[in-house]
Amino acid sequence: MGPSPSRFDPEQPSLSPARARVLEAMQHNSASASAGEVALQLGVHENTARKHLDGLADRGLLERTQKPSAGRGRPASSYRALSQYAEPDVRVRDYVGLASALARHIAATSSDPRRDAIAAGEAWGAELSMEPRHDACTINATVMSLLDELGFAPEANGGSTSIALRRCPLLDAVRAAPEVVCAVHLGLARGAFTARGASAASVRLTPFAEVGACRLLLA
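Above: the chain's sequence. Below: its structure in token form.
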């Protein structure tokens, strides 16, 4: 029951934002893709896409297969993500470190860990949701975007009000202190709602709700 971990190698250098975007696109592709197909999907030049794809393949994050040669020149290659859970993005690294430290502090010092964890998450979610890149987003879209940036691989069902969280970057910490870590995640979503002047009363999180996911219900 519950989500899969967001795995990354802390010894590996962080990916650039552009290369992390290519990896994310490949993780969402169900089949192999060529550099041309990835370039079209992301709106970049084919040579740029190929450079990032080859770099990811050299890091062991993508599988690279050469297609049969159709004439002169270098044979074309196709690429496939080796694991949808490979996540070396610097945003997830930073989140793991900060949230883990916060959870340990609350668990050790608070008389009501769940209450204080929700409050901390609400403050954090409110701050993140008000960043300029979210100005044109609806509240639900903002929450989806925040969760995606932090490595939860959110998947909306039933419109955008019921969200499966397919990954958890803090899975080990959750198992040690679920009442704290899961409460921070709930507060994160609630904070985005209250920051936009909406009620967060109906925002609920059910940890380990189903095979492969936690379940977040939005207003």
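The domain at 90-217 is CATH 3.30.1380 (Muramoyl-pentapeptide Carboxypeptidase; domain 2).
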